[in-house]
Amino acid sequence: MNDGALRPARIDPGNPSFDEALADARALVDAELRRALAGEAGPIAQAMLYACKGGKGLRGFLVLEGARLHGLTKVQAAPVVAAIEALHAYSLIHDDLPCMDDDDLRRGRPTVHRAWDEATAVLAGDALQSLAFELVCRATIPAEARVMLALTLAQASGVAGMVGGQALDIAAETAPEPLGLDEVTRLQARKTGALITWAAAAGARMAGADPAPLIRYGDALGLAFQIADDILDIEGDAAEVGKATGKDAGAGKATFVGLLGLEAAKARARSLVEDACAALDPYGKAADTLREAARFVTSRRK
Amino acid sequence: MNDGALRPARIDPGNPSFDEALADARALVDAELRRALAGEAGPIAQAMLYACKGGKGLRGFLVLEGARLHGLTKVQAAPVVAAIEALHAYSLIHDDLPCMDDDDLRRGRPTVHRAWDEATAVLAGDALQSLAFELVCRATIPAEARVMLALTLAQASGVAGMVGGQALDIAAETAPEPLGLDEVTRLQARKTGALITWAAAAGARMAGADPAPLIRYGDALGLAFQIADDILDIEGDAAEVGKATGKDAGAGKATFVGLLGLEAAKARARSLVEDACAALDPYGKAADTLREAARFVTSRRK
Q1: Comparing A232-246, B50-64, B127-141, which segment has the lowest mean pLDDT?
Q2: Using a CB-CB distance cutoff of 8 angstroms, which residues of chain B are in contact with residue A143?
Q3: Buried b (16+ CB within 10 A) or exposed e, A81-109
Q4: In chain A, which residues have their Cβ closer than 8 Å to the Cβ of B174?
Q5: Where does this protein act, in terms of pathway (chains A, B) (predicted)?
Q6: CB–CB of B40 and A160 under 8 A?
Q7: How many residue contacts between A and B have a Cβ separation below 8 Å?
């Protein structure tokens, strides 16, 4: 077992660049998952590792940066960084299933039910959700903080959060009228926003600090992220984005671009990025990497 | 909100009968789930409630009885009782999916994907898993105990536990040779045993006591339960059992009855029940309701 990335050292107090911190978070996820699944040889464990690879690692980065801002070590942050990426990967596997969005491509590679089969995809997703809670419970932080992380993760991912948002999204497909702007905003706040906000606020919760500024940051970032996603669905190239594009618009789905128009959607995303950056004021310059991340979200090409 | 069943009172120190305790556990599950899902009106929440109904509530009973043995109140036990039934219900919903066991009938009613659709079944199962961890984190017991419960629940339900066992079961269907007795025993210890043992040991963990005797009880009970299930698959009547019977044997699946013969399987189940009862010696007569439960398992008709 290679514990090189997990040496008990304070996270560098100087601000890392966004790219460095992203790469750092991805390395922590990889090490934690390999360690957690070291005893498992079957197709489920393989599919779990496969599904956690190839993403940007934005959610894991948010946990890592929030932890750094609150003086936590990488050893303390690593299981929580891996937990949010495991939970996100589970949601993608299940969203891609034939009975849901029926996607063949994810992150530029076949989806899990295409690379294996549907049963493996259901079970690998299920096991990644279990693993996320296991990892949160293993973090070397006070028990009160671990309980608060696990409780809020369960809420953010459950029927009041991510799963509820996904259900609204599916219901909207067969609704007689397309959703309005308020409805789409509320839907996305649950479907993608809840977990992004959880990731942003995790560092404060790990340290027993007030999560309010990071919650405000995460809420604005999550919505900006979704608007940017809708813009990419229109403007992006499938090969570059790594999944099918033009799909939402083609399906007559209500999107921020469809509701606001392309230019107004871009302006709204920029304004949300400014809100996100302003929410970080209490942290001063130490939060510049999180500000860089917010600006990246509206400029990304994939 | 009706909190009648949740008044903060010590669990009756006199031994309840098995039937009374089962009914008590089912009432706690119902009250906890209704409270947890009170703000949710959509089909996912409806399917979640539907899937948690109609079962015996054996796992919830095990949590409740273990809690009573360790002097905990019903208020303290209730969220954990509901958590294990929510987790069990999630596993049944996903096991019944067309890509898994493809069952139309469960507990005498249409399975969730038949009563709603596959997407609702996947999401309701996912949300029940989240809810199980949320409920464990909400129990009014020390944070250390909540973390230990959540951690062990994640392990028992994940790739090293229930999901891993289900994957082995699916793999066995297409394996060139049927499984041997040791392999079927190991498979069932993961697929159904891990959660039964978790339920049995939860009360000790809630109280910060040594869970070893209840783990031994749960391990023996879980295996006896699975052997009894195989016997019911042969001897049971579908209408009474509430799901298709003769299915495992018909599918050429390795079962305890197939490997041992009917009479030897019955003898093995009886011997395991005696082991389970003996493991409760440290609790004396206070554990008689758990002993009654173990004996029920091999005499049940559904």
Answers
A1: A232-246
A2: 142-144, 146-147
A3: bbbbbbbbbbbbbbbbbbbbbebebbbeb
A4: none
A5: Isoprenoid biosynthesis; geranylgeranyl diphosphate biosynthesis; geranylgeranyl diphosphate from farnesyl diphosphate and isopentenyl diphosphate: step 1/1
A6: yes
A7: 150
pLDDT band, very low/low/confident/very high, at B251 (cuts 50, 70, 90)? low
pLDDT in tens, A168-201: 999 998 888 889 999 999 999 999 999 999 999 9
The Cα A24–Cα A54 span in angstroms is: 14
Identify the CA nearest to A154 among candidates B176, B130, B239, B188: B130
Select from B99, B100, B117, B148 the residue whose CB has the most chain A CBs within 10 Å, as the one to mutate to test that interface. B99
Record: contact B134-A154, CB cut-off 8 A: yes
Two tokens at A117?
Answer: 């089969």
Each residue of B28-87: pLDDT tens digit? 999 999 999 998 989 999 999 999 999 999 999 999 999 999 999 999 999 999 999 999
Contacts of B147 in chain A (CB under 8 A): 137, 143, 146-147, 150
Q: Are residues B127 and A158, on separate chains, in Cβ contact within 8 Å?
A: yes
Report the distance separating Cα A219 and Cα B270, nearest Å. Answer: 57
Contacts for B141 with CB less than 8 Å, ≥ 6 apart: B72, B76, B206, B207
Report whether B90 contacts B128 (CB < 8 A): yes
Largest pairwise CA distance in chain B = 56
| Chain A neighbors of B100, CB-CB under 8 A | 119, 122
Q: Where does the pLDDT of residue B15 fall: very low under 50, low under 70, confident under 90, or very high at 90 and above?
A: confident
Domains by residue range for chain A, with CATH: 14-299 (1.10.600.10)
Residue B226 CA: distances (Å) to CA of A196, B194, B230, B269, B297: 41, 12, 6, 9, 9
| Contact in structure between B84 and B65 (CB atoms under 8 Å) | no
DSSP A200: H
pLDDT band at A235 (very low <50, low <70, confident <90, very high): confident
> Quick one: three-class SS letters along A121-173?
HHHHHHHHHHHHHHHHHHCCCCHHHHHHHHHHHHHHHCCCCHHHHHHHHHHHH
Question: What angle do helix axes B194-206 and B74-95 make, rounded to 10 degrees?
Answer: 160
The owner of tokens 């009374």 is: B20
- Read off the tokens for B252: 């050429």
Q: With CB atoms and an 8 Å threshold, state whether B147 touches A151.
A: no
- Taking each continuous run of H as one helix and of E as one strand, the counts in chain B are 16, 2
Q: CB distance B167–A123 less than 8 Å?
A: yes
Cα Rg for chain B, rounded, in angstroms?
18
What are the DSSP calls for B206-244, one per residue? HTT---HHHHHHHHHHHHHHHHHHHHHHHH--HHHHTS-
Sort out which chain B residues have CB atoms less than 8 A from A161's CB and list them: 130
CA B233/CA B250 separation, integer angstroms: 10
Query: At residue B113, what are phi and psi to the nearest 5 degrees?
Result: -70, -20
Backbone torsions φ then ψ of B73, nearest 5 degrees = -85, 165
**B285 class by beta-carbon count within 10 Å (0-12 exposed, 13-18 middle, 19+ buried):** exposed
Contact A40 B142 (CB under 8 A): no
Q: Which distant-in-sequence residues (6+ apart) come within 8 Å of B172 by Cβ? A: B178, B179, B183, B187, B253, B254
Report ipTM (2 d.p.). 0.92
